[in-house]
Amino acid sequence: MHLAHDFDGEAGADRTFRGTLKLIDALRQRGVRRQVFVSSFSAGEHHQSRYGRVKHELEKVLGESEDVWIVRPGLVIGDGGLFGRIAKIARASPVIPLPDGGKGEVYCIDLAELCDLFLRVLQLGPASRVLNLFEPRPRALRDLVLEVAARNRPRLIMNVPSSLALRILDLSERLAIPLPVTSDNLRGFLANQRADHRSSIGELST
């Protein structure tokens, strides 16, 4: 089961692409008969982020492999990763800046449920080799953030136009100022608003 990704710009993207294919081939030569490549719902023809592009390119290569299943998790609800960074800001800051006020939608999956679904894929080898693992219905980013923040005290949402948010993130990265969200994260989020996402959870629950 392969979840690794190198986020070091274009060099990291190249290492991710080449390294993933080498690893899958090496495991295949050692007799591993079922492999799971963890992609992203940001992958697809709609991709705009570097992350989504690399995942999409790998999907195209692996899509015809009968021993590889491709799974696309949504935003993983847990203590780490992108959600963990967003939740930390939501709980600590009285004002939360969100692109376009958080009206965009995101497909989510709880970490514990995702792990259970991964095990089912490994054990069952379902007929569909490309699976979207996220809740059937999306959540508005604003609602998701306010749900996390409500555990402490009320928060104020700051409406930041997505075009301005992208410029701010691009500038922060050129100046090497670390922020919880990257421009690549935002580009992927915006691109996902234009895609048709269908959950495959039902295929694994029957």
Concise overview:
The protein has helices at residues 9-29, 50-62, 81-92, 111-124, 141-149, 162-174, 183-192, 201-204, and strands at 35-38, 68-73, 75-77, 95-99, 105-106, 108-110, 130-133, 139-140, 156-160. With 206 residues, the protein is α/β, with parallel strands linked by helices.
Molecular structure report:
By secondary structure, the protein is of the alpha/beta class. The chain has a single domain (9-204), classed as NAD(P)-binding Rossmann-like Domain (Rossmann fold), CATH 3.40.50. Helix content is 47%, strand content 17%. The protein has eight helices and nine strands. The chain has helices at 9-29, 50-62, 81-92, 111-124, 141-149, 162-174, 183-192, 201-204, and strands spanning 35-38, 68-73, 75-77, 95-99, 105-106, 108-110, 130-133, 139-140, 156-160. It has a three-stranded parallel β-sheet with strand order 1-2-7, covered by helices on one side. A two-stranded parallel ribbon has the order 3-6. A two-stranded parallel ribbon has the order 4-9. β1 (35-38), α2 and β2 (68-73) form a beta-alpha-beta unit. α1 packs parallel to α2 and α6 packs antiparallel against α7. The longest helix has 21 residues, at 9-29. The protein is globular, with a radius of gyration of 18 Å.
